[in-house]
Amino acid sequence: MTVFVDVMHGSATGGLARILGDSVREINSNRDPLFDGGAPEPLPKYIPELFRQIKTHKRSEDSLAVGFVFDGDSDRIAAVDGEGNFLSSQILIPILIEHLGTRRGFGGEIVKTVSGSDLIPRIAKLYDLSLYETPIGYKYIADRMLSAQVLVGGEESGGVGYGVHIPERDALLSALFLLEAIVQSGEDLSQTYRRLQEKVGFSSVYDRIDLPLASMDVRSRLVEQLDHNPPKEIAGQAVKDCLTVDGYKFRLADDRWLLIRFSGTEPVLRLYCEGADQKQVNQTLAWAKDWASNYQ
Fold first, then answer.
1. 3-state secondary structure of 198
2. Over the stretch 29-75, which tens digit does the pLDDT of each residue have?
3. Which of 33, 55, 171, 211 is the most buried (most CB within 10 A)?
4. For domain 2-87, is the CATH number 3.40.120.10?
5. Which regions of the chain carry the CATH code 3.30.310.50?
6. Does domain 205-293 have CATH number 3.40.50.170?
7. pTM, full prediction
8. Pick from 209, 219, 206: which is nearest to 267 by CA?
């Protein structure tokens, strides 16, 4: 197996290579406090070279390949499978739950944030693991890890931590666990994800967009609407309920959800959505953008 790692000029440089040796091919491995002028975020738009190298490998070699991307301080992770598909932590966390809870035999709670995938509680239930949900922010997961036995705690932005380790995110350890899952299951990460979806009868597609607001006054108008006149229908679907643990999470009639949440530090509206397919997600996010534009 060939392992590609985009360390984004950050602190993970040389980490996996020291453990795994010549099977690791590092990208952006020169440490740079300015990150070569880019954003060290584990997102598809920032990793064109990783996509290119994996696609080149697919054309020229028969061996299995996987790619990992770490953010600048190596606490957040994403992956790219051997076919060139991007895998966010919404996909990786269910895989980690199955691997650590079955092959490794670890126990404990599964901790997710309010923006975590609906697949996570389904996989937890499948393996008789309890679930604990927190507001968004790893500090809430860490607090739970200090007060309870936790197997895996993770957030949609890529931070994943483990009760057998320390109450903090660790992308390097996540990559090692995922590599172990690949070797022991004999499956590509995407194959495992599809199998898990089929096993619990749940199809999941997730996306998120950040929408700049013209001013904090716009934010105030949006909050006023959400508090006193929330939508009763979104993208043609009736709203079943609204959870306000952190932001406004609308559950729709067909079980997709939309989370509307404001940045705490800047005039930005964060829109999160999960649905059965990409069309549902695109329709819902487009509706949310149009709705917000009415108050700009």
1. helix
2. 999 998 989 999 999 999 999 999 999 998 888 789 999 999 999 99
3. 171
4. yes
5. 205-293
6. no
7. 0.95
8. 219
